[in-house]
Structures are given as C-alpha cells and as structure tokens.
Amino acid sequence: MTMATKNETSFIGYDYQNVIVKCSMESVYTDGYTIFGWVLEETSNTISNLGSVIMKFKRDCNIRNKDELIQLQRQFEVCMSEIETMESSKATGAVVGAYLMSVIGTVSLAGSVFTYRVEVLPLSLILSVSGLACWIIPIFHYWGNRKRKMNRLVPLINQKYDEIFWTFDKANALLTE
User: Fold this and answer.
1) 79 and 41 in one domain?
2) Which of 68, 81, 111, 124 sits in a 20 to 30 Å window from 52, CA-based?
3) CA 155 – CA 135 distance, rounded (Å)
4) Which regions span the lipid bilayer (predicted)?
5) pLDDT in tens, 31-77
C-alpha cells in the first residue's frame, strides 16, 4: 500500500507494510526491516494470535535501489520463516514420541485391569509393570530426543542467521551508495 504526504516544500510518498511476528522474534524483525529502509511506526498485540505482535512499517517509496532491497527483504523473510520452523520443530518429535509411549502405557494398564478381573494374575502384573514403565520412560525419552534435535538444529539455525547478516550487509551497502 502506498500513501503520500505533502509538505510545504516537497512531496513524499510512503509504502506501508504490516507484519505479524512472534514476540520472541520482534527485535530481529525490527532490525531487519530497518536495514531495508523501513521505519517502525507502531506495534500492537494481536487478538487472534496469542504470542504474536503486529508491526507497522513505512518507507519512502522513492528509496534508492528499491528493487534490490525488495529482493534482499524477501530473502530475509524466507530465512526468518525457516528459522521459526526449525525453532518450533525442536520439541515436536520428542513430544510425539512421548505421547505415543504414554498411550501405550495407558493401554497396557487398561489391559492389566481387565486381565486382573478375569483372574490372570501373572499377565496382569506384567501389563501393569510395563504400563507404569511406559508412563515413566517418556520423560527421559522427551529430554533425550529434544537435546539431540537441538544439537542438530543449532548449527543450521546459526547458518541461517549468518545468511541474514550477509543480506543485512548487502542492503546496508545499497542504502549507503
């Protein structure tokens, strides 16, 4: 969206952009969009998306090297999207595995109760012990898998941040020409 203001001496047109980001990434987006020539006008909390913020930016529509800046900005947005995806996937696999083991434990305990009622005591004991184990083991399973996943993802996330800083350098060079 483009809008214009008129001063007594000159006419300045502005481009406007609203961006919805997670609160934890707000400062990175503020720094990023500033590098691409945007000025942060205001931020406001979203009603429908808890933990997110609406950031409102404006930029002079006659900025130098606008096409190149737009291309670099898109590259920045793609990198940020990939970082957010990697951040959210850190615990996803561990949570799914822990839930599945807990469900198996619950089914095993239910089987233990049913076998106890029909007086098959040895099978009932085996099922109850395995059910309780399947309730305790997911705790350690979750933390172990989460740590392994984090160790794998942290270098990739850092690589994406390096790519973002490279785009910042390119954009800064375009703005200071």
Assistant:
1) no
2) 68
3) 33
4) 94-114, 120-143
5) 999 999 999 999 988 777 788 899 999 998 888 888 999 999 999 99
